[in-house]
Structure formats: structure tokens, C-alpha cells
Amino acid sequence: MQFLAAGRHGDMTWMATTADRRRHPSLLWPDVRSIIMLAMSYAPEPDLFIRTGGGVLFLLGSLIMVYNLWKTVQVGPAEIAQPTRPLAGARA
Fold this sequence. Notes:
Elements: H1 2-5, H2 13-17, H3 25-28, H4 46-75, H5 77-81
């Protein structure tokens, strides 16, 4: 009941108003001996964000590599082989 006293039930006021009868299963159902309770988290796995970030970085790196390859092919081998200015100490 510390959960309710701390106000952690939020907008679920029914939890506070029915707290006394929900303290023990036999108060809800006199013939009950035990209750099995299941829960499912709707929060995404933390790994999902890490995997998504890694996928985005991989895709970005691939796009940069394809862009560089395209620019290299677009320039052509003849222009790449010729330097734009003479090297220091080279004869013209």
C-alpha cells in the first residue's frame, strides 16, 4: 500500500478507493486459494533503439561510400591521373 500512499497510482483512482478489498484474494473471492497474475510490458526493448541507431549509421556510411564512388566514376580516370599543379621539385 506504500505505492498508493506515494500517489504512484496516477489517474487510476479506483486503485485507491478499492484498496481495502484488494489487500487479499480471499476478500474478493472467498473460495480462492491463489491467484496467478500475468503482465506484459508495452515499452519497447532498449536494444531496439541501439539496433536502429546502428542501422542508421550503417545506412549513412553506405550512402557516403556510394556517393564517393559515383563522384570518382563521374570524374573519370584521365582527370584523376593528372595532378592539378606540379609537385615541388618536379621539372615541367
